[in-house]
Write a structure and sequence with these properties.
Methane Monooxygenase Hydroxylase, Chain G, domain 1; five-stranded parallel sheet; Flavocytochrome C3, Chain A, domain 1; 668 residues; alpha+beta; EC 1.3.5.1; oxidoreductase; transport; 18 helices
Length: 668
C-alpha cells in the first residue's frame, strides 16, 4: 500500500468512530476562523451546503460555479428522493440496516467506516431540510411519507413529488444566499476552475476563467473543496446536464490527487431510450416509478417483432404473453432490484431480441396494474364496493398523478405517448459515477488541503450506488462531515496569513492554463469539439459500458490514444481567447474526458472480476450474475498521474470488513 493512502479511519467500534473522531478533532476558534479563506468549487447540494455551513461557522468562503446561478447545479435534476434511516414506516429500518444495504448494494467495494457515518448522519439531514422548509411529501396524518427504492426491503426514501433534488437544492441555496447577503460568501457565477495551485505541497488556490469576459483569475485560500459532481458525460450521451464535466477533478488528479475506481460507473435502468444520432442528452425517469411500475417484454419473439413493426400495441398483449422478467428472476426484490442488476437484465432481454421500440433497445414500464389497484382502494374508501372498471381506472389515475404526476407529464412531453394509457418505454443509460477522487475519512484527497465532496469523490457507494443515496451523500458531506473535518486541517493555518496570489507558484500555473487555452484556439483543425466527444462516447459505451471484456477494453485503449492524438491535430475552436467562448470551454472539457476515458478503460482491464456496475463478461455465472474475486480485488484502485496519461501508477487501499460478512449478492 502506498504511503499516501492513509484512510485516517478512527479506532474503536464502528458505531462510535464518528462520535469519537468529532470529540478528538482539533478546533479553530471563532476569531481565528475570520482569518481563514476556503474555496468551494461547485454549488450543487454538496457545494452549497458546505459553503453555507463554513460561512455560518465564520470562515471566509469563495464559491464558484460555471452556471449563471448556483440554483442551476445538476443536483436539481434528481427526481425520486433521499434516503434516511428514520424507520417512520415501522418496517424494521435502522442505521445499521441502511449501512448494510449500502455496503451490499455497492457489492462490498466501499469503506465500512465512511458508509456507517453516512447512515448515521442521514437522519439529521431530513430534520435540517424540514427546518429549511423543504416540502417533503406527507401522509394523511401530516407525518413525512416514505417510499421504497431499489436494493432494499424497507421504505426509507423521503421525496417531494418527482422533484426532490430541486427542492433540496432550493433549501441549500437559501442557506447559501443568506451567507452571500451577509458578505461571508463571495459568489463567483460563470467562473470555471481550470487548475489547482499547490504551494509547498499544499493546495492553496485555483486558477479560474471568467466565462463572460474570458479573463484568467488567481484565487488563493487555505483549503480548496471540490464539489464538482460526476464524470458521466465521458460517454457523451448520459442523464447528466450538458455542462457536467470532469475538468476540476481531472486537473486535481494531474496535480497529484489519486483517481479512485474510475471504471465504476452506474447505468440507470429507467431512462427514456435513445431515439437517434442527433441526440445530445438523455432524460431519466425516476427510480421511484419502479415502486408501482412493472417491467416487462413480450414472451414471444414474434410479438416483439410485431410491436417493433407497429403492427401490435403493448396494451393488446394478454397478461400470460408478457414476461415480467425481473419478478421472474428475482422474486424477493422483483422490480426493485439494484440499478446494475436491473440494467443488465434489460440489456440481456433486448440483446436476445425481445426489445420493443424501433431500435430494439427498450423494455416496458407499465402502470396499468397499479392504476387498478389504487383505484379499487380509493373506491373502497368512498364506500363503493362494486365500482365499474371505468371508475376504478379514473380513481387510480388520480392517485398515480398525485404520486408521480410531473414525471408522467415529462415523459409525455418528450415521447408524445400518454403513460396513463400505454406503458412507458425505458432503457438503461449512463447516470452516476461511483469512482472519483480518492479521499480519506476526513474527505481530504492525498493532496493536503484539497478536499472532495459528493459525487466528485469515490467514498461511499463502492461499485454501485443505491437509488436516493446521491442526495444523501452530497448533503451529509456538506452539512455534517466537512464542517468538522476541515477544521482539523485548518487548525495549522491560524498564523499563515492571506495566501499570496502573486507568488511564483500561481504565476507558473496561470501560464500553463493560458498556454493550454491558446493552443486550442490556435489549432487550425477541421473538426468540431462535438465530433470528438461523440466518437469518444461511442467507444466508451460500446467497450466500457454496461458490459466489458478484455478484447474490447484493449481495443478501446488503443482507439482512445489515437483519438487523443487526432484531437490535438484536428480540433477547431472558433472564436477568441478573450471574451465569451462556449466552444473553448467545451474543448478543454473534452480534452480532459479523453484522458479520463483511457484511465477508465485501464482500470476496467486491470480489475479481473465483476462487481456492481463493473461487469466483465469473462466473470459471470451461468445465469448472467456477477462473479466477484474478493481474494485479489478487495481494494480501492487509486490511480496516480505519472505525467503521461497512458502510464498511470496503481496504488491500492485494501478494504477491511469487520462488521459485514463478504458474500455473493443475491436479490432472489
Amino acid at each position: 500500500m502506498s504511503m499516501d493512502l492513509n484512510s485516517q479511519i478512527p479506532e474503536g467500534p464502528l458505531a462510535e468512530k464518528w462520535t469519537k473522531h468529532k470529540n478528538d478533532i482539533r478546533l479553530v476558534n471563532p476569531a481565528n476562523k475570520r482569518n481563514i479563506d476556503v474555496i468551494v468549487v461547485g454549488t450543487g447540494l454538496a457545494g452549497s451546503s458546505a459553503a453555507a455551513s463554513l460561512a455560518e461557522m465564520g470562515y471566509n468562503v469563495k464559491a464558484f460555479c460555471f452556471q449563471d446561478s448556483p440554483r442551476r447545479a445538476h443536483s436539481i435534476a434528481a427526481q425520486g428522493g433521499i434516503n434516511a434511516a428514520k424507520n417512520y414506516q415501522n418496517d424494521g429500518d435502522s442505521t445499521f440496516r441502511l449501512f448494510y444495504d449500502t455496503i451490499k448494494g455497492g457489492d462490498y467495494r466501499s469503506r465500512e467506516a465512511n458508509v456507517y457515518r453516512l447512515a448515521e448522519v442521514s437522519a439529521n439531514i431530513i430534520d435540517q431540510c424540514v427546518a429549511q422548509g423543504v416540502p417533503f411529501a406527507r401522509d394523511y396524518g401530516g407525518l413525512l411519507d416514505n417510499r421504497s427504492f431499489g436494493g432494499v426491503q424497507v421504505s426509507r426514501t423521503f421525496y417531494a413529488k418527482g422533484q426532490t433534488g430541486q427542492q433540496l437544492l432550493l433549501g441549500a441555496y437559501s442557506a447559501l444566499s443568506r451567507q452571500i447577503a451577509k458578505g461571508r460568501v463571495k459568489m463567483y457565477n460563470r467562473h470555471e476552475m481550470l487548475d489547482v495551485v499547490k504551494v509547498d505541497g499544499k493546495a492553496r488556490g485555483i486558477i479560474a476563467r471568467n466565462l463572460t469576459t474570458g479573463e484568467i483569475e488567481r484565487h488563493g485560500a487555505h483549503a480548496v473543496l471540490l464539489c464538482t459532481g460526476g464524470y458521466g458525460n465521458v460517454f457523451f450521451l448520459s442523464t447528466n446536464a450538458m455542462g457536467s464535466n470532469v475538468t476540476a477533478a481531472w486537473k486535481a488528479h494531474r496535480r497529484g490527487a489519486s483517481m479512485a475506481n474510475p471504471c465504476f460507473t452506474q447505468i440507470h435502468p429507467t431512462c427514456i431510450p435513445v431515439s437517434g444520432d442527433y441526440q445530445s442528452k438523455l432524460t431519466l425517469m425516476s427510480e421511484s416509478l419502479r415502486n408501482d411500475g412493472r417491467i416487462w417484454v413480450p414472451k414471444k419473439k414474434e410479438d416483439a417483432e410485431a410491436i417493433r413493426a407497429g403492427k401490435l400495441k403493448p396494451t393488446q398483449l394478454k397478461e400470460e404473453d408478457r414476461d415480467y422478467y425481473l419478478e421472474r428472476r428475482y422474486p424477493a426484490f422483483g422490480n426493485l432490484v439494484p440499478r446494475d442488476v436491473a440494467s443488465r437484465a434489460a440489456k440481456e432481454r433486448c440483446d436476445a431480441g425481445f426489445g420493443v421500440n424501433q431500435t430494439g433497445e427498450a423494455v416496458y414500464l407499465d402502470f396499468s396494474s397499479a392504476i387498478m389497484r389504487y383505484g379499487r382502494e380509493e373506491a373502497n374508501i368512498q364506500g363503493d364496493h362494486n365500482p365499474s372498471d371505468a371508475k376504478v381506472k379514473k380513481l387510480g389515475k388520480e392517485v398515480v398523478e398525485k404520486k408521480y404526476g410531473n414525471l408522467f407529464q415529462m415523459y409525455e412531453k418528450i415521447t408524445a405517448d400518454n403513460p396513463y394509457e400505454t406503458p412507458m418505454m425505458i432503457y438503461p443509460a449512463v447516470h452516476y459515477t461511483m469512482g472519483g477522487l480518492w479521499v480519506d475519512y476526513n474527505l481530504m484527497t492525498n493532496v493536503p488541503g484539497l478536499f472532495a465532496l459528493g459525487e466528485a469523490n469515490f467514498s461511499d457507494h463502492g461499485a454501485n450506488r443505491l437509488g436516493a443515496s446521491a442526495l444523501m451523500q452530497g448533503l451529509a458531506d456538506g452539512y455534517f462531515v466537512v464542517p468538522y473535518t476541515v477544521g482539523g486541517y485548518l487548525a495549522d493555518d491560524i498564523r499563515t496569513g492571506a495566501i499570496d496570489v502573486n507568488s511564483s507558484e500561481f504565476e507558473a500555473v496561470e501560464k500553463e492554463v493560458k498556454d493550454r487555452l491558446q493552443k486550442l484556439v490556435d489549432n487550425n483543425g477541421s473538426r468540431s469539439v462535438d465530433y470528438f466527444h461523440k466518437r469518444l462516447g461511442r467507444i466508451m459505451w460500446e467497450k466500457c459500458g454496461m458490459a466489458r471484456n478484455e478484447k474490447g477494453l484493449k481495443e478501446a485503449i488503443a482507439e482512445i490514444r489515437a483519438l487523443r492524438e487526432e484531437f490535438w491535430k484536428e480540433v477547431r475552436v472558433p472564436g477568441k481567447l478573450d471574451g465569451l467562448n462556449p466552444e473553448l470551454e467545451k474543448a478543454g472539457r473534452v480534452a480532459d474526458f479523453i484522458e479520463l476515458g483511457e484511465l477508465m478503460c485501464i482500470d476496467a482491464l486491470d480489475r479481473n472480476e465483476s462487481c456492481g456496475g463493473h461487469f466483465r463478461e469473462e466473470y459471470q455465472t451461468e445465469d448472467g450474475e456477477a462473479v466477484r474475486n474478493d481474494d485479489d480485488y478487495r481494494y480501492v484502485a487509486a490511480w496516480e498521474y505519472s505525467g503521461n496519461p497512458s502510464e498511470p501508477k496503481l496504488n491500492k487501499e485494501e478494504l477491511e470488513f469487520e462488521n459485514v460478512e463478504l458474500k455473493t449478492r443475491s436479490y432472489k
